[in-house]
Amino acid sequence: MKHSIFTFSPPSFRRKPIHRCFTVPFRRKPIRRTAESSEKIALAERTLDWIPPVRRIGSSRGMTKLRGFTLLEVMIALLVITLGMAAVINTTSESGWKSAQLRHKTVATWVAQNQIVKYRANRIWGNARSQSGKVEMANIDWVWRMKISATDDPSLRRLDVEVFIEGEDALKASLTGFIARI
User: Fold this and answer.
1) How far is the C-alpha of 95 from the C-alpha of 73, rounded, in Å?
2) Closest Cα partner for 124 from 112, 132, 116?
3) Overall CATH class of domain 103-180
4) What is the pLDDT of residues 55-83, one digit of tens each?
5) Full-prediction pTM beyond 0.70?
6) 64: closest CA among 75, 76, 53, 51?
7) Domain ranges for the chain
């Protein structure tokens, strides 16, 4: 077995015994170690224990080439990472936007429910066909419109409530309720 100063053996594994005679890569004849060369080789092997291995490709003249990543491979890897990061950022921003929309819809539904409950609590049975107003909830100003309509049953009325954010035309919530004459 040929030993080289380029072999990698992590310190956690058992080390192979060092032989008195070793070969240099790409040389056929073994060289005898002297005390000085043994110390240099031992130092080099201890130092290389902590350095990750480098894949070497040998040639017929004894020269070695280091093999690594080409510039094209690095550029493609960076492109893939960039596209992945863009997708993550896009998903995160959409998630934040949807979270805000769901919060608005939830609060708008509460505003509509409050208006129906207030109408029921007042026990108003008038001829009014619509009502509207402004209310503040969750630090947002809301505008609500209630349409009151008759049903087939003369002792039952339908209440349709629509809720908007003040200054916007987009409907945030729509709720229907019924009130009975008792």
Assistant:
1) 33
2) 116
3) alpha beta
4) 555 555 555 566 788 899 999 999 999 99
5) no
6) 53
7) 21-67, 103-180
